[in-house]
Amino acid sequence: MGKPASPPKQASNEARAVARTLRISPRKLNLVAQSIRGLTAERAVNELRFSRKRISKDVLKCLQSAIANAENNHDLDIDRLVVSQAHVGKALVMKRMSARARGRGARIEKFFSHLTIVVRDVSAETAQEAA
Question: Do 113 and 86 meet the contact criterion of CB atoms below 8 Å apart?
Answer without folding.
Answer: no
